[in-house]
Design a protein that fits this description.
The structure is a single chain. It contains three helices and no strands. By secondary structure, the chain is mainly alpha-helical. 76% of the residues lie in helices and 0% in strands. Helix 1 crosses helix 3.
């Protein structure tokens, strides 16, 4: 569970806080991936570990709740 909080914290820092639902788009996450790869210098494998299970689960949960 700690990993989910850490990964969400990274995303929240990138976004600068809360984002309205209308602004949560595919492009937002593509830009976040680009940020992690290019600006943070993370390797693609690390980005996959951060992104795939954690944020995918969060987005799926959010989508189901809407």
């Amino acid at each position: 569970m700690q990993g989910y909080y850490e990964h969400f914290h990274y995303l929240n820092n990138y976004l600068g806080g809360d984002v309205p639902n209308e602004e949560v788009t595919v492009d937002l996450f593509r830009n976040y991936i680009g940020y992690m790869l290019n600006d943070q210098g993370l390797k693609p494998t690390t980005v996959n570990v951060l992104f795939s299970p954690t944020l995918h689960s969060f987005l799926l949960f959010s989508f189901i709740r809407i």
